[in-house]
Design a protein that fits this description.
8-stranded parallel barrel, globular, alpha+beta, 13 helices, binds (2R,3S,4R,5S)-2-(hydroxymethyl)piperidine-3,4,5-triol
Length: 699
């Protein structure tokens, strides 16, 4: 890893397999030169485009690291400002660079106005992933307004069209993949809902011809949980660009005198195949993105009582569920919605974060003590950014929700969004959760957010269009403050399932509730989508009785799918048979044996349920001494499927042992990946878990 600086202001970010090259030319223009395989460092130079005419500007053709709005650049820009005198163009001059071993910052300032702009790059040891972001500083006296501040612009090599993979999900159907071949014009993936949403994902994955194992893939993921925009375009000359960052939809930011604005980071990289891309991002996120307290610790098996009792929580039923959960080996018992205020359903109570005395006459302590004496930690659900109109909080502070006096508030799920830009709201939220954590032995907070924003009036702000950004910033800041004060408490980000499942959330929260859809069959696609650019260990996956649809798959099948993330249980254990409880116990025991491999290993997606009728995922420990293979199929077509299973990710020179369908195997990694073993996959809800161990010499 190094930053190579050439004399002519050309900068090469050298990672193990990649050169990312850019520079500042003699006109002071930032220029992108190369993203791809390494070339001879001396070969990189600035080429100039001539041949400008009145309809095709030369500047509009250049590949840049950042396009500022102005002059004859008509393509999607990254930064657009409005200066106090009304000028809406930025024109930059180059002021030099700062660097150390693993970082680089190119400094620019406006030629006429007091604005500094920095392009920041960070490299990390032993990975091709780099991060990029932009900083802006107002060095003048008057406020500068920005209409757009993206985090980075990328130019992809060559002129053939790229396919952009993103998601077109929904509540209960997060991370469902879409592929868009970008021949010309633009493709936009975005959120305008306040959170990063269940729909598109703040990322791009661009390729021409690639599959799990090969083909050049360029990718970038934005660490931001609010409104984002990925705008990809292919120009008339065939150049494909992508600008990624905070959405400019209803966005503005007023940068006051002396103030600095730093954009969210974008993590980007290049890989040979989707599998390698995911493995890079997975291990990178564990090492560099997830909050440090829990990043290197395996996540506990949790039980969450939401689907068992919904709002009908009380001390008796939670204690009864806790007993059964403890017997099956659960380590963390989480009480979900319904424990506070007048919360009997979703019409009332949000905002009143005091315990409901009808449900818990002796306070939370009685339940928490019971849970602790059963050997489990206790976790709790909150939805701090929201308020029901029917709540003490709203009755006392009707002005605390975003609103316009002249407009009817849309009450999605009968709730309103609190104006998180108000310092008094931030203090209220911090103090109620701080008190909850200080007064009770709580080790886990599930932080939910169950609606999109609307009627976003924030009269307290001089520039109300800043609220989208300030809201998310306030959430991050409060979580960071709480984590600082309560370092042994883990936080989960939930937004009606995976409505805020992104690397921004994962920079502050320790894990994510991936989807309210716990149907094991549907989960195969959802979890695959999540695994593309997010860390597996942060992906909470529950075994439940499934309430959205009527027909749960068999318990072992549900375990097979849920064990491919951070396992949780969410069914109504009070209704489980002895046999069901035994299955739970056995699978939880098994999960504890393999969870280090799942949570910290490398994932090889070998067979795809949609393409192959069968899902086969192989998780391999970093030292390749252990591996766990999950095979599942909800039902093979044409009755049955006899097929060789070829394993991936094993060390070809090592020998491995394992049992499968009553047979014991001892084979080399080479044999297992080249030849494989014969399987007969048949029937509804087929599922197998194979644990592969290295056979050490002398064993
Ligand atoms: C939505 C979440 O995704 C669920 O898991 C549950 O916590 C409910 N909210 C509670 O209202």
């Amino acid at each position: 890893m190094s930053v190579i600086i050439k004399e002519n202001n050309i900068f090469i970010l050298e990672t193990p397999n990649t050169h990312y090259v850019f520079g500042v030319d003699k006109y002071g223009l930032n220029r992108h030169l190369h993203w791809g395989e390494k070339c001879d460092a001396d070969d990189y130079f600035f080429e100039y485009i001539g041949d400008e005419n009145s309809n095709h500007s030369m500047l509009d053709e250049y590949k840049q690291e950042l396009t500022v709005f102005g002059s004859t650049m008509y393509r999607e820009c990254g930064v657009k400002a409005q200066f106090p005198d009304g000028c809406r163009e930025i024109s930059l001059k180059y002021d030099g660079f700062e660097t150390d071993e693993n970082s680089l910052c190119l400094k620019f300032s406006d030629k006429a106005y007091p604005l500094e702009l920095k392009l920041n790059y960070q490299l990390y040891d032993e990975t091709d992933i780099i991060s990029r972001w932009i900083s802006l500083k107002n060095t003048g006296k008057e406020t500068i307004r920005f209409e757009k501040i993206a985090s980075a612009e990328f130019s992809l090599p060559g002129i053939e069209p790229y396919t952009f993979e993103n998601t077109n999900g929904s509540w209960g159907g997060e991370f469902l993949k879409t592929e868009t071949l970008l021949n010309g014009g633009s493709a936009v993936f975005e959120s305008r809902k306040g959170g990063s949403s269940h729909n598109n994902t703040p990322q791009f994955i661009a390729y021409r011809s690639a599959d799990e194992k090969s083909g050049e893939v360029f990718f970038a993921s934005l660490a931001y949980s609010g409104n984002f925009k990925v705008s990809a375009s292919r120009d008339l000359y065939g150049i494909t660009r992508a600008v990624i960052g905070i959405n400019d939809f209803d966005f503005e930011y007023s940068l006051g005198s002396g103030e600095i604005f730093e954009t969210p980071k974008v993590y980007c990289g290049r890989a040979d195949g989707f599998g390698e891309m995911s493995r890079q991002m997975n291990s990178f996120a564990v090492k560099h993105i997830l909050p440090r307290q829990f990043a290197d610790k395996p996540l506990p098996v949790l039980y969450n009582a939401w689907e068992a009792v919904f709002f009908d929580v009380n001390c008796e039923n939670q204690t009864a569920l806790a007993k059964l959960a403890a017997e099956m080996g659960v380590e963390l018992f989480v009480m979900d919605d319904g424990w506070f205020g007048q919360r009997k359903n979703d019409w009332a109570g949000l905002g009143d974060w005091y315990v409901n005395k009808e449900k818990f006459p002796n306070g939370l302590g009685e339940l928490i003590n019971a849970v602790n004496s059963l050997g489990m930690d206790f976790g709790i659900w909150v939805e701090p950014e929201m308020v029901n109109a029917d709540s003490d909080l709203f009755r006392s502070h009707p002005d605390w929700a975003y609103h316009y006096d002249t407009r009817q508030a849309s009450e999605l799920r009968h709730q309103l969004v609190l104006n998180m830009t108000l310092p008094e709201v931030q203090e209220y939220i911090f103090s109620v959760i701080d008190n909850l954590l200080s007064e009770n032995n709580i080790k886990y907070v599930k932080w939910d957010m169950n609606r999109s924003f609307s009627e976003t009036g924030a009269q307290n702000l001089e520039n109300p269009k800043m609220l989208w950004y300030l809201h998310i910033k306030a959430v991050y800041d409060i979580v960071d403050r709480l984590k600082k004060k309560h370092p042994d408490v883990a936080f989960e980000s939930c937004a009606s399932g995976g409505g805020r499942a992104d690397l921004g959330a994962l920079s502050h929260f320790d894990q994510i509730w991936t989807s309210d859809n716990t149907d094991a069959v549907d989960r195969m696609a959802i979890q695959k989508g999540f695994s593309m650019l997010h860390p597996i260990k942060a992906m909470r996956a529950w075994v439940t009785d499934l309430y959205h649809d009527s027909k749960p798959s068999p318990l072992p099948f549900r375990f097979n799918i849920a064990m491919q993330g951070a396992l949780g249980i969410g069914g109504n254990l009070l209704k489980y048979s002895e046999e069901d409880l035994k299955i739970c116990r056995e699978n939880i025991t098994l999960y504890k044996e393999i969870r280090d491999i799942v949570q910290f290993g490398d994932l090889y997606r070998i067979l795809d349920i949609d393409k192959d009728d069968v899902l086969m995922n192989n998780y391999v420990s970093p030292d390749k001494s252990k591996s766990v293979v999950f095979i599942a199929s909800d039902g093979t077509k044409h009755f049955k499927k006899r097929m060789p299973l070829r394993f991936e990710g094993l060390d070809k020179t090592k020998r491995y042992t394992f049992s499968f369908d009553g047979k014991t195997y001892e084979k080399s990694g080479a044999y297992l990946s080249e030849v494989g073993i014969q399987a007969y996959i048949r029937g509804a809800y087929y599922n197998r878990i194979i644990i592969i161990d290295e056979k050490k010499k002398g064993e």
